From TrEMBL:
Residues 10-199 form the Ketoreductase domain. Keywords: Oxidoreductase. This is SDR family oxidoreductase. Belongs to the short-chain dehydrogenases/reductases (SDR) family. It holds the Pfam family adh_short_C2. CDD domains: SDR_c (cd05233). The keyword Lipoprotein does not apply.
Amino acid sequence: MSLVIDFAGKVVAVTGGGRGVGRGVVDAFLDAGAEVEFCGRSEPDGVPERDGRRASFRPVDVRDAAQNEAWIRDVAERHGRLDVLVNNVGGSPFGRFEAGSPRYFQAITEINFLSAAVATRAAFEPLRAAKGSVVNITSISARRPSPGTAVYGAAKAALESLTRSLAVEWAPEIRVNAVSSGLVHTESAADHYGTPEQYAEIARTIPRGRLADPAELGAVCVVLASPLSAHLTGAVIPVDGGGEWPAFLAHTPNADIVRQADRLPDSGGTPS
């Protein structure tokens, strides 16, 4: 098996590829030689290109099933194929669960789970013809308590469950995997993580000592969709720098040794 990843002649669709993690995914597949189509609700700040291949953007609200399905069909029809679908769109503001309205719960579920389910269903036929793959972007919030974003965490857990189920239901023609994202440094990092001092403290709760770069998640998506992962399906790959330091370590007899390496917050806490 060749260890060279080459997506020349392959078509990749990415939801929410205009910024943040999605932009990292778009850039990574362009670097790998793919023809990349991406969508979003607002015009991106520039459309990337590589060696004369320019990514194509389409304004789409993926919460609208009709728009979502129409975009997938259009991509497949214009190119005559679809090899990879990356369901990246997602997110949630912080807020207490009891303060959320039913409409708010529905909106968070639509953006983080149902949009991916709709896009994946719409992509079934072209992906089956290409023996392609789906990569879902999930979150560490799917696997650990997520106070302040409880519905978001639940929706991402649903997406991980869908990943594992479709990997079996659609085998052997289509592979379905997921990337579980930890904390990521994006354009909106300050809105999520606060001042530079707070940001630094949060970074110290990660064993690798920093937040991920969107390009790092994009690279994992490329590997998962490539022939190098030909027998990998139903997997949820964490890209989180080692997760989060267990709070109890701050209170053990060896806590000072850990702190001397500047690897454990004095408080012993981890952000939600």
